[in-house]
Amino acid sequence: MLAAAIPTRSTPDETQILGLLGGLLVLAFFSNRVSRVSRIPDLLILMLTGVILGPVLGWLAIPDLASFTEYLGTLALILILFEAGTEIRLRDTLRHFPPGMLFAALSFGTSFTAVAYAGKLLLGLSTHNSLLLGAVLGCVSGTIVIPVLQQLGIRGPVSVVLVLEAALGDVIGVITVGSLTAIAEGDPLMSGLLKGLLTRTFIAIAAAVVAGFFWSRARWRFRTDRFGSVLHVGVVLVVYGVTRVIGGSGLLAVLAFGLTLANTHGRKDTPREETGALVFHSDLSFLVRSFFFVLLGASVELIGRAYILATFAILAGLVVARIASVLALRVTTMRTMSKSERELLSGLLPRGLVNAVLAIQVAGRVPALDFLPAMTFTVLVVTNLLMVFATWRSRPKEGALQPEIDSALQASARHSQRACRLPQ
Question: Which stretch of DSSP H or E encloses residue 286?
């Protein structure tokens, strides 16, 4: 299976390590350019590179690679979700919120149920561990979906639904996993899960709003400092850490913190200062996320026979759940949806960064789920290939121009260009 098992070979010297880091940065840059043209997620290229450098050649023989990968992935999620929050304008988004929230709930709920049922039926997992499996694989990756929408030039209600699902999916998955891991085996699952979801959500939002209110009025004092952007990142990390300590969802907190900063009326930065901060966040996010996917590929092996059937069943369940969610959305709120729009909605189900990070975290805490990073790696690759097929079918006709993009998609597209210039 895909487990953290790196061949023990001679450790590269300082020159080799620095040369390898430089080569990976060059690879990440050109992979991102290729993805913008071909729509092939460059995370696939980066993970393949990690597989070659790790299990094949043994050049990435780093002690405790799985733990390092987990921390790196969490840092990438913090940076990405914060910048996603800064691009959300509540006044423009709220009018499109009901169908987007409905689809996010349908998509996660049906996928969560299908994966959990497959885990209990085919792998013999306990109910608690089956739900953890479903929570890890239940959400789509917003950092992949949003840039794809921008490349396709999609506009209208469908684009808004996909943007809101992408923005909410990662957070729903993180809160659900966090709530489930806080419940001990044998405790009431449903009441414990509901209590955990509500508690983590309330604490995170309250902490983020308070912190955002004060920081929106204090940060302008440091706007002329050479390293003001570094201070800004430090505050974001402090918000994440403090929220985790007091029992809230740290990732939801950084998303809400960014949203609060973007929608409060504190003193605004000048365009030049705002551009500098965005460039710093963008480059840092690109660097961290690129290395994460290379290290993820370096720490895995092929999935074992005992889990092949369950993995294919989970993939089938994710596809069926996605189609069912699209049909339910059409029946309830979007009856004018065209066939091509339904196909696009059905095909955009990629798993990505948040799923990989959650899989590593859960596997480290629950020994019965030590196979989860391997299974998640396989699901991630297959769902991204399905997305590539769906986007190729949805290519706009030659000469068709997009006259206008809905304001919610416009904000998320800017985020994908400036804050998510990352492996897709």
Answer: helix 271-298
